[in-house]
Amino acid sequence: SPWAVLVLALVLVGLWAPCVLSRQPNFIVILADDVGWGDLGANWAETKETPHLDQLAAEGTRFVDFHSAASTCSPSRASLLTGRLGVRNGVTHNFAISSLGGLPLNETTLAEVLREAGYSTGAIGKWHLGHHGRHHPNSRGFDYYFGIPYSHDMGCTDTPGYNLPPCPPCPRHGTAAREARKDCYTEVALPLLENVTIVQQPVELGSLATRYAEEAERFIQRASDSGRPFFLYLALAHMHVPLTPPLPPAPGRGIYGASLSEMDALVGRIKEVADSHGKGNTLLWFAGDNGPWAQKCELAGRLGPFVGAWQRQRGGSSAKQTTWEGGHRVPALVYWPGRVPARRTSHALLSVLDVFPTLVALAGAALPPNRHFDGLDVSPVLFGWSDVGHKVLLHPNSGAAGKVGEIEALRLAQYKAFYTTGGAMACDGSTGPAEWHQPPLIFNLERDLQEQEPLDVASREYQAVLPAISRAYAQALQDIAADNVSVADYSQDPAAIPCCSVQHVGCRCHGAHGATLHPLVEKRTPQLCL
Fold first, then answer.
1. Which single residue of 227, 259, 261, 426 has CA 20 to 30 Å from 205?
2. CA distance linking residue 330 with residue 323, whole number of Å
3. Domains of the chain by range and CATH?
4. Beta strand pairing status for 350-351 and 66-67?
5. Which is the catalytic residue, given 67, 73, 135, 328?
6. pTM
7. Of the residues 128, 131, 135, 136, which is catalytic?
8. Does 184 qualify as catalytic in the annotation?
């Protein structure tokens, strides 16, 4: 009857209402570095250091089958900002402090799309997508940048953070040249940038979390005062290797636990600031860039149940740099009062790749043309209307085995297939040998989260799922081959290293004799990042 049609129409309008926004929402994307799935208390009961993140989970939705787009830094970040895997956007491994290139300039970033849609855009924290010339964040769609252009262990400091093995402080003026130490950057100080200006070199790591929080608050305030919606990309230094924590080591988890608590407090502060500018106006998305850095031993995070047991039996780590679950399954939370359901746990298969198309859709903007995207608009999952994400999710090689960036592992529903396996460096120094599998190893993650026992090739289950996996794999490779793909420039030149004063040992900005002003009141150095 006409009345039934009218009632049905009203119901449908009501269901759609959360997506019909009266104004463009603000977006805050917080990306933690090398955080383990089990580092979130809401995920893993043994973890006690994340009360603010756990509260975020209670007031929003927790995603327990959420994945990074690669198991190492630069490729994962490039995928977040483009919605495309490294085999498409060109970023397949990490950039160096002397890199001339970065994320290819023909790739369109999320910040560029949102700025064109009227957003004020800011990036705070770790960049690691190229800092030289037009690869700097200010040239990639961000109105404002404050942070370290790569990882915070890629340069020396006067008060080094925790590392394993420990790294020495920066050389002082007049000190004798020292022998280079493996895995330590001993000759060039770590820079802190505000836009293109180096404001501190070397960085004072002990105050870095506070400075990031303060700059984030200032950016949000400026954007709110302007009346424009904002997009803040906050890429934390935590938990790569712990900074110098302001608090004593936490009982049970020591230095790592104290650093985890510091990160948790920082996220809590950002949530509080966002809420103070209108609760319900801002979507906050927290995720990790990849799994824990296992070779750092007690300075690495928790995997939870995703231990990659099959690989561990053969040597090496199954975390960062690998395609095992511990390398790419990361904690993820979305908080948006009145829009995203509270106290909900989603089992949808999602990825950091989905951030780009989802935020673009929510902003009312359009995806860039003439390219394929690996990410999906998952707003129906965020709003609780659906719990279906990717049917197929690709996991690129990230350094442990196989050619970096190549796709040799994939997920299809609850099944995980490996055409190549290998272990990264473990705490004991071992690495697992690269092995190629034809036919592939297949695990059923529904009953084997530990990836301990692959399906028997002769079993009915294996024979039933193999054709579907083979088709999905072939279709994915064909789609990539037919796409407009980019190639990153990985060439290096020492002249590209950010250095505020080449006359001073270690590129020291403040005081030729090693004096460093208090980081919160120091005079800004008018040197430009070359």
1. 426
2. 13
3. 26-167+180-482 (3.40.720.10)
4. parallel
5. 73
6. 0.91
7. 128
8. no
